[in-house]
Amino acid sequence: MVLNSDLDMRDRGANNRRIAKNTLVMYIRMIVMMLISLFTSRVILQVLGVTDYGVYNAVGGVVSMLSVISGSLSRAISRYLTFELGRGDMEKLKKIFSTSLNVQVVISLVVVVVGITAGGWFLHHKMNIPADRMGAADWVLGCSLISFAIGLISVPYSASIVSHERMSVFAYMSILQVVLKLLIVYALYLSPYDKLKTYMVLGVTVGIVIRFIYARYCKKHFEECTYKLVFDTSLFKEMTSFAGWNFLGSAAWIFNSQGINILINIYFGVTLNAARGIANQLNGIAHHFIDNFMVALNPQITKSYAAGDLPYMHQLVCSGAKFSFFLVIFFAIPISLETESILSLWLGKVPEYSVLFVRMTMLCTMTTVIGNTLVTAQLATGDIKKYQIVMTVCGFWVFPLTWLAFKLGGGPIWSYAVFAIVYFALVFVRIYLVKDLIKMSWGIYLKGVLLKCAIVLLISMALPLLIYLTMPSSILRLILLCLVSFTSSAAVIYWVGLNAKERVTLIGMIRSALKKVKSS
Fold first, then answer.
1. Of 343, 319, 298, 334, the residue nearest 502 (C-alpha)
2. Which helix (H) or strand (E) holds 48?
3. Phi-psi region of 272 (alpha: psi -120 to 50; beta: other; left: phi over 0)
4. DSSP readout, 440-466?
5. Which carries the bigger pLDDT value, residue 234 or residue 428?
6. Pick the residue with more confidence: 49 or 320?
7. What are the phi and psi torsion angles at 65 (to 5°)?
8. How far apart are CA 341 and CA 221, in angstroms?
9. pLDDT tens for residues 241-291?
């Protein structure tokens, strides 16, 4: 006779192996994307020049801003799809998919209309754009809105892929996407037309191709991904409400990222927008590592909640938060110490303030990733109204405080300092709001996650910092510091950051992932 606890352990083992496989696939995807993105970023900066690159990051940052919207909606839809997959209700899945498409179409139309009218007015009357590049800025805004509409309507398809944990699809499609971006860079060199306009139009074209392929794949492989003209009023209201409250939480992030970018443009000009764009590129690398891990982990957190397995959910929430932070450490320590050398090798000509912005961005990233799994846990419960209201009210303070600092004569560095302080405080707010809903105590997260992460960070920094302070700047120091940083961080994470059970699980996941590689 097989005991239920034995079955649970087997199920959890299978889930851990699935997470390991999906994480490995996502990291292979990420490494390819990272290498090509670093190359294309350098070339695009050289081809466009600092001014146009600054215009792109100031105005075209609307893509990043709107991607936060689509990302929040994707998480909302993915939550519903994953929850019903955990329950095995195919008919409900079909209704959810078709209803989610209806929601996306409505939202995309509203945002595009508002973006063209209000966004166009703000661009021409408030932003600090060189007069001779205002026409190109209009193209950037228009193409950004088109890209947003295409991406938003396709969100239910990408959410379905995540819910089914088909991460290999993301890997293949991402590789195709970066290859197409390489072709864009080549086309920029050949184009006799305005480089910035050409870059934006080609970007829209790539978006259309990628989204069309995603849709075709989902229709072929997932039964629920065939649109039918159905309108379930109660489900539409429920999903719209969920997406709306989730969007409210994203609104604070929009103000705190793109809103700050606009403030920097108004007070300091497009040159500092270019520097901020460079910092965001490196920050994106760190976030890609975390996002790839979270994409593999999130469905398991939601499914464990749907199945009522709260102890396993607590384990995933805490372990996932630690691993997210540890992944940042691998990049944040060497990048923060050797920022100037890395930017010089990467870009050649480094825009003013880039070094300082990169270092502060790494600090801000640490304060945000530590609460990632708490967000997923909150979404899994479906009870998000109070959470989003409180988080929005608290998180929104970054924008007005930064604005006040600039108005009083503060430098651009204040934008990062305010962000880091507010978002670190928000970690504790998240714990307070989520703990009762998932029946998890304060102590588990404070001692098992926050304290462990702080200790690991301090110890991991010791040897790299010693090398940085005692050796003169050179390629040798850069290589040695990176090697020592990666090695010491890995050792400290394994022996200090993980408990005995997590070490066993990690070894098992690595072995499982390696077996998958050998057998493929």
1. 319
2. helix 4-59
3. alpha
4. --HHHHIIIIIIHHHHHHHHHHHHHHH
5. 428
6. 320
7. -60, -45
8. 47
9. 776 676 666 677 777 877 888 889 889 887 888 888 888 877 776 676 677
Could you identify the residue written with the tokens 């992030």? Answer: 253
Q: What is the crossing angle of helices 270-306 and 4-59, to 10°?
A: 160
> In this structure, what token pair is assigned to residue 247?
């969007």
d(CA 455, CA 496): 8
Query: 3-state DSSP call for residue 437?
Result: coil
- What's the pLDDT at 182? 81
> Does position 405 have pLDDT exceeding 70, yes or no?
yes
**Residue listed under structure tokens 């990043």:** 64
Show the tokens assigned to 314.
Answer: 């607590």
- Residue 10 contacts residue 18 (beta carbons within 8 Å): no
Q: Which residues contact 324 (CB under 8 A, 6 or more apart)?
A: 290, 293, 294, 369, 370, 372, 373
For the whole model, what pTM was predicted?
0.69
**Alpha-carbon span 16 to 10, nearest angstrom:** 10
Which position has the token pair 């990733």? 369
Average pLDDT of span 20-44? 63
Q: What's the per-residue H, E or C state across 219-272?
A: HHHCCCCCCCCCCCHHHHHHHHHHHHHHHHHHHHHHHHHHHHHHHHHHHHCHHH
